[in-house]
Design goal:
The complex is a heterodimer.
Chain A: H1 2-17, E1 38-43, H2 48-61, E2 66-69, H3 73-82, E3 88-91, H4 97-105, E4 110-119, E5 121-124, E6 134-135, H5 136-143, H6 154-157, E7 167-171, H7 176-185, E8 197-199, H8 202-210, E9 215-219, H9 221-226, E10 232-233, E11 236-237, H10 252-256, E12 264-272, H11 279-298, H12 306-323
Parallel strand pairs in A: 1-2, 1-3, 6-11, 7-8, 7-9
Antiparallel strand pairs in A: 3-12, 4-12, 5-9, 5-10
Chain B: H1 2-42, H2 48-52, H3 65-96, H4 101-113, H5 118-132, H6 139-163, H7 167-175, H8 180-208, H9 212-217, H10 237-245, H11 250-281
């Protein structure tokens, strides 16, 4: 029945358009070391610019490989990944229990490769002169679910701050950014107060903080970098002297050496174990790890140390060996 | 007493005229500000290279080729799928269907369908076309989803156009011995054509700006090739614009404005065709 409907649908449309090509054979190796086939990537819109940059450069070397990158979000991407529809999933947070279960159900194995860091930046309006630093527990007091309707003024956070209302700006609840922030600050993923201005578009948050002198917001470091003159960056103290004493500002250096904690987050790609058998996937991921350092900085993210890339590379090589 | 009443009446009349004038100009001024702003930002970026290049991480090298071609493909396919279906359903409901309870329910539901948010159609398309019919994230799945989205709009507006055909014309046709189909083909459709064309253009103009349902169905963002068949992967201009608008670097916002200009040109072009056809086909009674 299903195939019949499918056949009729295809037939009707092919009549209408007079053209109906099939998918090209995916895994053939062309002459002269040139690869063919396709690489299907989807997932996080945060990681998208890095994957786009790598795909663009890879295409210059291997023009016959069909590259596609989607942006259905980390969660939406994992749904497709768990069905085996995509080869690689971009993720701005680690895979969740239920997503692992979905992969297992469809007999899909995967490996995780970290490609860069992002420093989630805490920003206030430049007219705000009193917030010079903030601790993780103060941020928790501001953002936790219990704060809703109760914690409203700056002096409730720190007594020497003025008795004025503050307004919060942050990532929308569907994004991996929100999950990471709440996990790091509130202690529980996907749990925060609801009365803040939420947007999936970080440029909207930038606008909000720029125009509101009582604002405090968080978003990726690239958005701070592009609007430095209109925003004030707040150093964050995680009250753990083992990774840097006192409040620390996010910067390429502090995110890279992990002293900016707990808000430096890893940006990840997940690769399907069945796809690994294809030469174009192997070659693409190798290319990704080799070039992620330079390209991630170019699009606004923060590269890892060389040794960390080496570690990711050997983890990846191991995975290729076991699934070949 | 009577004179005072007269003055108030005239004052109200004058006030309403200026209120109406204000409403008209408010809409026009907003549109002018929007278009002016977009032109100011993006016009300088428009070039042949911009139209014939693929997306890139470097804003100055990036172009809209695959998005533009995806939009053209999907609009043609959506039109082919939705127009015959929509007009056919409207003719049936208006000319053949009897006024029964069932007919009323169908009618009410079509009117309701026209108001459902597009993302819901996206979820429907994902389940039926992408998964059940195994079309994946292809142009075909996207076009079918958009066709569903605009069908109710075409049906409702086409019925209005058919209703506006004078009853006397139809009866004259029957009186000359024409069958129902002959009457519809030779009398009703020509008389209603300008209204039907307008309904189709309004519906297609809505479809051309949709990004959300297509992302749900599986449209992509970085597609460095032009679609070659209805089963191709694709991206469309609204997705490219959405993607550029949410990037941190300002230069991408300029690209987004330039892409919006291209999208607006397509919409204006479609409207121009509609106006032309309307003038050409206008029938005076």
């Amino acid at each position: 029945m299903k195939t019949q409907i499918q056949f009729i649908a295809l037939f009707v449309v092919s009549l209408l358009l007079g053209a109906c090509g099939g998918k090209q054979n995916a895994d053939q190796q062309g002459a002269g070391g040139k690869l063919k086939g396709e690489v299907r990537i989807d997932g996080s819109s945060t990681v998208y610019p890095i994957s786009e940059a790598v795909a663009e450069e890879f295409r210059a070397e291997q023009p016959d490989v069909k590259m596609t990158v989607g942006l259905s979000g980390t969660g939406g991407g994992f749904k497709k990944f768990g069905r085996g529809e995509t080869d690689i999933n971009n993720a701005s947070r680690p895979i969740k229990e239920e997503e692992i279960a979905a992969c297992n159900q469809n007999n899909i194995h995967y490996t995780e490769v970290q490609v860069a860091f992002d420093g989630l930046s805490i920003v206030v309006n430049p007219q705000n002169t009193f917030v010079k630093d903030i601790t993780v527990s103060e941020l928790k007091k501001m953002w936790e679910p219990a704060a809703q309707g109760k914690i409203k003024t700056w002096n409730q956070i720190r007594p020497e701050w003025p008795n004025e209302k503050f307004n919060l700006y942050g990532a929308g609840t569907e994004s991996g950014t929100y999950d990471y922030f709440t996990e790091a600050i509130v202690g529980k993923s996907h749990s925060s107060r609801g009365d803040y201005t939420a947007s999936e578009d970080d440029n909207v948050l930038v606008q909000g903080v720029m125009n509101d002198k009582n604002a405090l917001g968080f978003f990726g470091y690239a958005y701070y970098e592009a609007n430095m003159d209109k925003l004030k960056l707040v150093p964050v103290d995680d009250q753990n002297d083992a990774n840097g004493k006192g409040a620390i500002l996010p910067s390429v250096e502090t995110v890279k050496n992990q002293t900016y904690a707990p808000l430096s987050r890893p940006l990840l790609i997940y690769i399907n174990s069945v796809a690994v058998k294809r030469p174009e996937i192997q070659s693409f991921v190798n290319f990704y790890i080799d070039n992620a350092g330079v390209l991630s900085r170019e699009v606004g993210f923060i590269p890892m140390e060389d040794a960390q890339y080496d570690a990711q590379r050997s983890k990846w090589n191991e995975f290729v060996k076991t699934h070949q | 007493m009577n004179k005072r009443y007269e003055t108030i009446k005239r004052a109200k009349d004058g006030a309403f005229k200026y209120f109406g004038l204000f409403c008209t100009f408010f809409g026009l001024i907003m549109l002018a500000i929007f278009i002016g702003n977009i032109l100011f930002e993006g016009l300088g970026r428009l070039s042949w290279d911009f139209i014939t290049s693929y997306s890139s991480r470097l804003p100055e090298k990036a172009g809209i080729l695959s998005a533009l071609m995806g939009t053209v493909w999907i609009m043609v396919m959506t039109a082919l799928l939705a127009i015959p279906g929509g007009i056919g359903a409207a003719i049936y409901l208006e000319m053949y269907a009897k006024r029964t309870r069932f007919g009323n329910i169908v009618e009410l539901n079509i009117a309701n369908l026209a108001g459902i948010p597009s993302i819901i159609y996206g979820l429907l398309g994902l389940e039926i076309f992408t998964y059940q019919l195994q079309m994946g994230g292809s142009l075909l799945a996207g076009a079918m989803t958009l066709a569903l989205l605009i069908l109710p709009i075409i049906i409702v507006a086409t019925r209005e156009a058919l209703k506006a055909v004078p009853r006397s014309l139809i009866e004259a046709s029957f009186a000359l011995g024409a069958t129902k189909w002959q009457t519809i083909r030779r009398t009703v459709l020509p008389a209603a054509s300008s209204g039907i064309i307008t309904s189709v253009i309004i519906a297609l103009s809505r479809a051309i700006g949709e990004a959300a349902p297509l992302i749900v169905v599986g449209a992509l963002a970085y597609v460095p090739f032009v679609p070659t068949s209805p089963t191709s992967d694709f991206t469309v201009l609204p997705i490219q614009i959405f993607n550029w608008v949410s990037r941190p670097q300002k230069a991408f916002l300029v690209n987004a404005s330039a892409a919006i200009i291209v999208l607006l040109c397509i919409v204006f072009f479609m409207n121009a065709i509609a106006v032309y056809l309307r003038i050409k086909k206008k029938i005076k009674y």
